[in-house]
Specification:
By secondary structure, the chain is α/β, with parallel strands linked by helices. Mean pLDDT is 84; it is low at 7-11, 13-21, 143-152 and 279-287. The strands form four sheets. Strands 11-10-12-15-13-14 form a six-stranded mixed sheet, sandwiched between helices. The chain starts with a helix and ends with a strand. A hairpin with a 4-residue loop joins strand 1 (26-35) and strand 2. It is elongated. The protein folds into three domains: 24-133, Immunoglobulin-like; 154-278 and 289-383, Zn-dependent exopeptidases (Aminopeptidase, 3-Layer(aba) Sandwich), CATH 3.40.630.40; 395-436, Roll (Membrane-bound Lytic Murein Transglycosylase D, Chain A). The protein has helices at 2-23, 137-144, 181-198, 216-225, 260-276, 288-318, 354-360, 363-383, 404-410, 415-422, and strands at 26-35, 40-46, 52-57, 62-68, 70-71, 86-92, 99-106, 110-117, 126-133, 158-164, 202-206, 230-237, 248-252, 329-331, 343-350, 395-397, 434-436. Bound molecules: zinc ion.
Length: 438
């Protein structure tokens, strides 16, 4: 009995020793870099929660990352650092035999923010290092200057901000052939911007111009600095059933999602930030109830406008591509929660559907989709002219309730100008009548 007990203890000690020896090693399995206009994100895939320290060296500029009990079977020096502020990733002689020392050779002096992420979906443990340029005092004050929402008098362009969903660590939905939603979103967003920029009196701006992740809240913050008249987020759907197909247009719901699909998409959107690496930074409001009440109050107007644009864009898409839903859809997407900017989200197709995955990779299809979306946007701004904007429709179709003086007011002109331009003898107009605008 006694000796048996002793053997058991011995085995236990031996076993614990082996386990802790195994646990002690942190394997760096991969390194990825994502360069954005204002930072570079370096992501290390590690076998477990990592224990590490970092410090900078200058002349030349370097960031040193010491990973405790780290090992790496991969060749760090062959990590792709092209077009980024990191010149090279390499291994360096460690301060002790239990440390893996990784050095990032930097193009210029940078500051670092680092954090580790717990396993989520396709990713295991990650160590994330965000490097950004040192803010000079002048740049810091400039950044904090309040953004003016009121437009200057005088003719100006209508600004459309286009947001390509996902990016970087967050691939979005995946196609059966391996297409990544983040890539098709960006391609469509760029084509859409192209077409908008060809319109007189309209200008397009992109929240994301390359393959990097932007947290959802930051997307609306970026948009805000661009003084947009409209925010359009581009996505492609993914669903577990490959038969699901067609495009849909979404606006922010008052309360929750309007459909099962809406709830599904909201969940996916939430996981976006966790995947992309914003999970450790809480984007939630401290008091959700108060936030919701305030949001509701200020959103009523832009929600109505959003709904009108969405209807126009939906109409354009209906004539171009297969629709998943023939009505405007509602969900609580965070990316649409700008209280003062009309915002819509377009799911261009289902990337999880083999036929639609193919379409989503076709430049010709991107052009078709973009033409439909631009058509919808133009139609909206034709009926709802922006005061002081250069963009002016050539004609207007009389709607129920319109009067000639009302139309004149809407388009910044006078009844006599309208009558002259359209050779009208009276002030009477009828529904459906096409009026040429001066
Ligand atoms: Zn998406």
């Amino acid at each position: 009995m006694n000796s048996c007990f002793r053997v058991l203890i011995f085995i236990q000690v031996l076993f614990t020793g082996v386990v802790s020896a195994v646990q002690a090693q942190t394997v760096v399995e991969g390194v990825r870099l994502w360069q954005s206009p204002d930072s570079v994100r370096v992501v290390f895939d590690v076998s477990e929660k990592v224990s590490y320290s970092t410090f900078f060296l200058d002349n030349p500029d370097r960031l040193v990352i010491d990973i405790k009990n780290g090992v790496s079977p991969i060749k760090l020096s062959s990590v792709n650092t092209r077009d980024s502020w990191v010149k090279k990733v390499r291994r360096s002689s460690p301060p002790d035999k239990d440390t893996l020392r990784v050095v990032l050779d930097l193009e210029k002096p940078l500051t670092a923010k680092d954090f580790s992420l717990a396993p989520y979906q396709q990713y295991g443990h990650r160590l994330v290092v965000d490097l950004s340029p040192k803010l000079t005092a002048a740049a810091a004050t400039k950044k904090e200057a309040p953004v003016k929402r009121h437009h200057k008098p005088g003719a100006r362009d209508i600004v459309i901000v286009i947001d390509a969903g996902h990016g970087g660590e967050d691939p979005g939905a995946l196609g059966p052939k391996g297409s990544k939603e983040k890539d098709v979103n960006l391609a469509i967003a760029k084509e859409l911007a192209n077409q908008i920029n060809k319109e007189k009196g309209m200008v397009a701006k992109l929240t994301r111009t390359g393959d990097y992740y932007i947290p959802l809240k930051k997307r609306t913050d970026i948009a805000r600095t661009m003084n947009p008249d409209l925010f359009v987020s581009i996505h492609a759907d993914g669903f577990h059933d490959p038969r699901a197909k067609g495009a849909s247009v979404w606006v922010l719901s008052g309360r929750g999602a309007s459909s099962e699909m809406g709830r599904w998409l909201e969940k996916l959107e939430d996981s976006s930030d966790l995947l992309g690496g914003a999970g450790s930074v809480s984007l939630q409001d401290k008091d959700p109830l108060l936030a919701e009440v305030l949001l509701d109050l200020s959103m009523t107007h832009s929600r109505e406008a959003s709904h009108q644009v969405a209807k126009k864009v939906l109409h354009g898409l209906k004539n171009t591509t297969r629709m998943h839903k023939h009505d405007v859809q509602y969900a609580g997407f965070r990316v649409l929660k700008s209280p003062d900017i009309p915002s819509i989200l377009v799911e261009t197709a289902f990337i999880s559907n083999p036929v639609e995955e193919k379409n989503l990779n076709s430049k010709k299809h991107h052009r078709k989709l973009s033409r439909a979306i631009v058509g919808g946007i133009k139609s909206y701004f034709s009926e709802n002219p922006v005061p002081g904007a250069l963009f002016k429709p050539a004609e207007y179709i009389v709607q129920r309730g319109d009067t000639l003086s009302g139309v004149a007011l809407k388009f910044d002109t006078s009844v006599s100008h309208l009558k002259e331009k359209n050779q009208l003898t009276s002030d009477q107009v009828r529904i459906g009548q096409v009026l040429k605008l001066p």
